[in-house]
């Protein structure tokens, strides 16, 4: 499964800790992230991460293209709703694309952990059929 990791700046440490805690599960899948988040996750967890550009340099749009072409299976997007982002439309677009293409997306730690456990159990294997 292809798993996307995105985190607002105030949630990057939380993303690192999530990836450390679930390293065993994530190691069986392919991880993708924006540049900064990907580098931080790699450094903290030792997991390999395919990195797109930094979010503010077009990485969010690159991920959106992958979602739109049905290349991603799950998105963990740890958002900080208290932070106003100038690129808010880019981030909203990720949520919309996931809804349009039936790609599960988690926006907080609780939903991320549920989806990671579902990934481990094989509950998302239907994505393989959906892609063909």
Molecular structure report:
The protein is of the alpha/beta class and 132 residues long. The chain is built from seven helices and five strands. It has a domain at 6-73 and 111-132: Rossmann fold. The protein has helices spanning 12-21, 23-26, 35-45, 59-68, 88-100, 109-121, 126-130, and strands at residues 2-7, 30-33, 49-51, 74-78, 105-106. Helix 1 crosses helix 3 and helix 4 (59-68) runs parallel beside helix 5.
Itemize the secondary structure elements and their pairings.
Blueprint: E1 2-7, H1 12-21, H2 23-26, E2 30-33, H3 35-45, E3 49-51, H4 59-68, E4 74-78, H5 88-100, E5 105-106, H6 109-121, H7 126-130
Parallel strand pairs: 1-2, 1-4, 2-3, 4-5
Helix pairs in contact: 1-3, 4-5
Task: Jot down its keywords.
single chain, 132 residues, alpha/beta, Rossmann fold, 5-stranded parallel sheet, 7 helices, 5 strands, globular
User: What structural category characterises the helix and strand content?
Assistant: alpha/beta
Tell me the CATH architecture of the domain at 6-73 and 111-132. 3-Layer(aba) Sandwich
Please write the CATH class name of the domain at 6-73 and 111-132. Alpha Beta
Shape designation: globular
CA radius of gyration is: 13 Å
Strand order of the largest sheet: 3-2-1-4-5
Strand content: 15-25%
Overall average residue pLDDT: 92
- Main beta sheet: 5 strands, parallel
Low-confidence spans: none
From N to C, what is the helix and strand string? Answer: EHHEHEHEHEHH
- According to CATH, what is the topology of the domain at 6-73 and 111-132? Rossmann fold
From the structure provided, what is the oligomeric state, counting identical versus distinct chains? Answer: single chain
CATH superfamily of the domain at 6-73 and 111-132: Methylglyoxal synthase-like domain
- The percent of residues in helical segments reads 40-55%
Instruction: Please work out how many helical segments DSSP would assign.
Output: 7
In total, the number of strands is 5
Gap between N and C termini: 14 Å
């Amino acid at each position: 499964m292809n798993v996307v990791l995105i985190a607002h700046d105030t949630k990057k440490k939380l993303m690192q800790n999530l990836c450390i805690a679930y390293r065993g599960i994530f190691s069986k899948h392919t991880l993708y992230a924006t540049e900064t988040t990907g580098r931080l996750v790699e450094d903290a967890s030792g997991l390999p991460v395919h990195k797109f550009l930094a979010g503010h340099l077009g990485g969010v749009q690159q991920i959106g293209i992958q979602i739109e072409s049905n290349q991603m299976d799950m998105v963990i997007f740890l958002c900080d709703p208290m932070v106003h982002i100038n690129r808010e439309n880019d981030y909203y677009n990720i949520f919309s694309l996931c809804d349009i293409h039936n790609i599960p997306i988690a926006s907080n730690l609780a939903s991320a952990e549920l989806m990671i456990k579902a990934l481990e159990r094989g509950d998302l294997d239907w994505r393989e059929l959906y892609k063909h």
